[in-house]
Amino acid sequence: MERKVVVVVAVSVAAVACGMAAVAVGWRVRKRREWKKAVRVVREVEEECETSVERLRQVVDAMAVEMHAGLASEGGSKLKMLLTHVHNLPNGSERGTYYALDLEDTYFRVLRVHLDGQQSPILEHEVEQQTIPQHLLTSTSKDFFDFIASSLKEFVEKEGDDSELSVARRKELGFTFSFPIKQISVCSGILIAWTKGFSIVDMVGKDVPACLQEALVQKGLDLRVAALVNDTVGTLALGYYHDADTVAAIVIGTSTNACYLERTDAIIKCQGLLTTSRSMVVNMEWGNFWSSHLPRTTYDIDLNAESPNPNDQGFEKMISGMYLGDIVRRIILKMSLESDIFGDISSKFSMPFILSTPMIAAMHEDDSPNLREVARILKDILEIPVVPLKVRKLMVKVCEIVTRRAARLAAAGIVGILKKIGRDGSGGITGGRRSDMKMRRTVVAIEGDLYSNYTLFREYLHEALHEILGEDIAKHVILKVTEDGSGIGTALLAASHSSK
Ligand code: BGC
């Protein structure tokens, strides 16, 4: 009897143990399956974002071809290739005191720059920044410029009329207005459309500097708008002031754009325009570039469809700081829908733009052994308290895929410009690669947080530039960070286009 009881107990214990083992195995199998599903999402996006050097060269060619088309006729390409009427870049001989007004997304800055005609490496200047009240971003052009003119007046008067600026002497201002503008002359231009957060409807189609000038006159301020400048053009001016080998400028931050010096005779659409100058700066508005060679994913398609400007700024939506965080968010949302690796789905995953690009950079560049920063962002921003290390690693991978594609495409864009102007070591757009060609030192001025503050983005961009051009050519191409082209560079342009 006793033996029988012992046998029964032993059998039961074994059965429970087997059951528990089976549950554990089942749990592990399910976990592995879920993990695989998440990995599959990442693998797929990695394949779709592939930017081999062959593909990048196709993008280079497409950029150069579109540049030609945009220069040939108005509306000939998605690249607007806008004339700036800037023929003279500052060369260091400028003297005097000049002002700049730089209009940014949510604030504007006013600067006063003193030039001694000696090409000083350090440009003496004063700056003041002011927030634009939110309601003015959607108000009328009159209210908007009244506000700006009042602040400018305060700045000009507060800084005082020093001996150099006698009361009788008219002051001159460069106006940085980084939106698509059809320029009629260096100091006048009509707003084609707003981008970023602005929507002052009555300003579209108006001569923007004329609106500002009118407000200045009404405030009794004798300040002439001498140059209307895109931020890329200010960057080029500052780059050129310091280094006369500068041929192009790129802004790559929240949004992105490029400009470069073009031969006047290559700008077919402006033939007939009276000019004795051999070159002109062209504002490409490259954020709107599009080509079927761009590696587009379903995440890009959805982001575009849900944006306020679907089908516009396609290149910008793949490469600029405003969008990278949201592309990453869309990928992890998909991972969380397809698998349970994040546990319960957080409602935060569905909130557009909850992940900013600085957060992506912080996760991507987290070099702590247990990825502390990734865990912090997941917890604080996305409200996922506990995430295993291998999932955190997968997050880093997603950031890498999105950023790497962006940086490599930006590099292809830059080489596209170099190709158009015959500085890529090939014989230009029609010629083949010529190793015997003497390559000139070529400087591209560059500004923007994405490039300056995100080390890995910068490294990927440089790496791709070298891959596309090859070492022999790439060593002649220098990307030079300028500081405050949209402020100081614009004041320099006011000086080089001064009426004095
Ligand atoms: C604007 C460009 C500007 C760029 C960088 C884009 O959204 O259309 O004119 O240069 O942002 O600020």
Layout of helices and strands, plus pairs?
Elements: H1 2-48, H2 53-72, E1 82-83, E2 95-103, E3 107-116, E4 124-131, H3 141-159, E5 171-177, E6 181-185, E7 188-191, H4 208-218, E8 223-229, H5 231-242, E9 246-252, E10 256-263, E11 279-283, H6 298-306, H7 314-319, H8 321-338, H9 357-364, H10 372-380, H11 389-420, E12 442-447, H12 449-453, H13 455-469, H14 471-474, E13 477-481, H15 485-496
Parallel strand pairs: 2-5, 5-8, 9-12, 12-13
Antiparallel strand pairs: 1-11, 2-3, 3-4, 6-7, 9-10, 10-11
Beta-D-glucopyranose (BGC) binds next to helix 5 and strand 10.
What does this structure look like?
- Belongs to the hexokinase family.
- It is an enzyme of class 2 (transferase).
- This is Phosphotransferase.
- Pfam families: Hexokinase_1, Hexokinase_2.
- This protein has 500 residues and is of the alpha/beta class.
- It has 15 helices and 13 strands.
- The strands form three sheets. It has a six-stranded mixed sheet. Strands 4-3-2-5-8 form a five-stranded mixed sheet. It has a two-stranded antiparallel ribbon with strand order 6-7.
- Helix 1 runs antiparallel to helix 8.
- The longest helix has 47 residues.
- The relative contact order is 0.16.
- About 2% of the residues have low confidence.
- Beta-D-glucopyranose binds next to helix 5 and strand 10.
